[in-house]
Design goal:
- There is one protein chain.
- The chain contains nine helices and 13 strands.
- It is rod-shaped, with a radius of gyration of 47 Å.
- By secondary structure, the chain is an alpha+beta fold.
- The strands form four sheets. It has a five-stranded mixed beta sheet, with helices on one face.
- A hairpin with a 4-residue loop joins β2 (94-96) and β3.
- Among the domains are: 61-140, no CATH class; 205-287, Helix Hairpins; 297-447, Heat Shock Protein 90, CATH 3.30.565.
- Keywords: Kinase, Membrane, Phosphoprotein, Transferase, Transmembrane, Transmembrane helix, Two-component regulatory system.
- It catalyses: ATP + protein L-histidine = ADP + protein N-phospho-L-histidine.
Length: 451
């Protein structure tokens, strides 16, 4: 489920962020270029207006006319100067050696762009009288530099706003899509013990169809599991009576004194198989009861006394295999939950360890308090479990190949089911006792003071 959630986040969140931020970037660039062009053209129009105003000022009186031979004052930026040139109506071209600018006398009034000796000039020509006219000139390169500097200043807001807007949009998308992550996490937390529907009250309308479809799927899965568990419970119940009857008949047959020894030897394996079948039926019924029933209201129980009693029930099996079964308990610990569930958990955990520990081995049981947790540990000197199979041993009917034991593969499945109902968690770890010697450490942790 984690991988699926990551895919959803990458596709939906990434797609929205990239598409919206990309749109902002493209529109922002187009807007910046458009603003730059308008500002550039507006600056050039203003410069043309300046040329017109200068021409009006110096042409008010003939005495104010400036000769082309007048030597302009020196300044720091000669390229930025505006030149006022007298153009006689009679005669040839007007040449200004200082400016390398040549003007023809037949220029019409108005704005002109003139090229002269490798330079471009912007002129405004105005006729003063029948004898002469005025040309107000400025280098085009200087005008463009001024216009360009003015237009570039209009780009500053875009350069600041676009990245800020992209970051804000990405944050807003992540914030607004948090409900999708919440729904994903809620579904991810569910297992076969929690198939309650997702509440659609606070779900956005856009993902409501997805939530509705998920709730329908959860309903179908819940119904399927209920039918499966009911089938297992019914099958176990139906098998119990004939298995019990066959066991009694076999015991009666074995008790006949006149039975030939050869027949008794033939019937002995049948008895072993019936014992195993009877244990399997009992475990099936226990697992079906744990999974099918609704968890009852938590009740207080004495965890220490239950562990001690359970150990006494398993002791005959350990004694028959000469296994050293030890118990270390601390203070009395009051648990909350179903006593039946905790008893089933403790019994199957201890019994499973005894079953898979070779004869002459050792099984240690510890029950103690660790801060606000109750801890049950069962440590054995069995053969251990391959690392790639540890996560599977809690599955029903899963047995490790080559173990040589006659178990049914239901013990740890019962333990996990009971732990889920009690609100605790279980774990298995290989315990390296010594070089060449392996064991298993089972650990169950349940929070105390549960409400």
């Amino acid at each position: 489920m984690d991988d699926s959630k990551g895919t959803v986040n990458r596709s939906l969140l990434w797609l929205l962020s990239v598409s919206i931020c990309g749109t902002i970037l493209v529109v922002g660039i187009l807007g910046a270029l458009t603003s730059f062009w308008f500002a550039f053209e507006e600056a050039r129009d203003l410069q043309d207006d300046e040329l017109r105003e200068i021409a009006q000022l110096v042409s008010l009186d003939e005495k104010n006319a400036i000769s082309s031979e007048a030597h302009p004052p020196v300044d720091d930026e000669p390229e930025m100067r505006v030149w006022v040139i007298r153009i006689p109506k009679a005669g040839g071209n007007v040449s200004t050696p200082d400016l390398s600018l040549t003007l023809t006398p037949n220029l019409s009034d108005g704005l002109h762009t003139v090229g002269s000796k490798g330079e471009s000039w912007r002129l405004y020509v105005r006729t003063v009288n029948a004898g002469y006219g005025l040309a107000v000139a400025q280098r085009t390169s200087a005008r463009d530099e001024i216009a360009r500097d003015s237009a570039l200043r209009t780009l500053t807001p875009f350069l600041l706003v676009i990245p800020i807007l992209m970051v804000l949009v990405a944050l807003l998308i992540r914030f607004l899509l948090r409900k999708v992550n919440e729904v994903s996490e809620e579904v991810d937390r569910k297992d076969d013990t929690d198939l309650t529907p997702i509440l659609p009250d606070s779900v956005p309308a856009e993902i409501l169809p997805f939530v509705t479809a998920t709730n329908k799927l959860l309903g179908r899965v819940k119904s399927s599991l209920q039918h499966q568990r009911q089938f297992v419970a019914d099958a176990a119940h139906e098998l119990r009576s004939p298995v019990t009857a066959m066991t009694l008949q076999l015991e009666n047959a074995m008790a006949v004194e006149t039975m030939p020894e050869a027949v008794g030897c033939r019937l002995a394996p049948l008895g072993t198989s019936l014992v195993r079948m009877r244990a399997l039926v009992e475990q099936l019924m226990m697992l079906a009861k744990l999974e099918a029933s609704t968890p009852a209201s938590p009740q207080k129980m004495d965890g220490k006394s239950i562990v001690v009693e359970t150990l006494g029930e398993v002791f005959p099996l350990a004694d028959s295999k000469s296994i050293d079964l030890g118990l270390v308990v601390g203070e009395d610990i009051v648990l909350r939950g179903s006593e039946h569930d905790f008893r089933a958990l403790a019994r199957n955990a201890i019994e499973n360890a005894v079953l898979y520990t070779p004869s002459g081995g050792k099984v240690d049981v510890r029950f103690y308090r660790d801060a606000d947790m109750a801890v049950l540990e069962v440590e054995d000197t069995g053969p251990g479990i391959p690392e790639d199979q540890i996560s599977r041993v809690f599955d029903p009917f899963y047995r490790i190949a080559g173990s040589g034991q006659v178990g049914s593969g239901l013990g740890l499945a019962i333990v996990r089911s009971a732990a889920d109902r009690l609100g605790g968690r279980v774990s298995l770890l290989n315990n390296h006792i010594s070089p060449g010697k392996m064991g298993i450490r089972f650990k169950y942790i349940q929070p105390l003071h549960q409400h």
